[in-house]
Amino acid sequence: MLWFQGNSMQLAKHSFQLLLRNLSASETALPVLTLFTKDPCPLCDEAKEVLEPYRNRFILQEVDITLPENSAWYDRYKFDIPVFHLNGQFLMMHRVNLSKLEKQLQKLEQQGAGG
C-alpha cells in the first residue's frame, strides 16, 4: 500500500465523499444541480448562500471552468458564471432565480413520485 501513504487522508476523504454522493444519488434519486464556477467568483458564493435552504432537494455539483478538462465549458460560460444546469439541462445564469428553481424541482419531484 505504498501508493496510499503520501496523501492518504486526502485520498480517503475524497473517496468517502464520492461514495456518499453516489449513495445519496442512487438511493434518493435527487436531481443534480450543476454550478459552473471559477475561483474567485463572488456571484457564485452569493448563489450558493441563496441555495442553502434548498440543499436537501438536490445534489450540488460544482464544475471549475478554469480546469483544462473543462475548457469547453470555459469557452461557453467564461463571461456568464454562475451558470446552473439541472439534470444536465440549462436552468439559469448570473443569479439564482428561486421561482424557476422551485418550479423545476417540483416538476422533477412530481415525476419521481409517479405523477
TrEMBL record:
Keyword Repeat: no
InterPro entries reported in the protein's UniProt record: Glutaredoxin-like, Glutaredoxin-like_YDR286C, Thioredoxin-like_sf
Chloroplast listed as a keyword: no
Record's keyword terms, sorted: Electron transport, Transport
Gene3D superfamilies (UniProt xref): Glutaredoxin (3.40.30.10)
Entry similarity comment: Belongs to the glutaredoxin family.
Protein name: Glutaredoxin-like protein
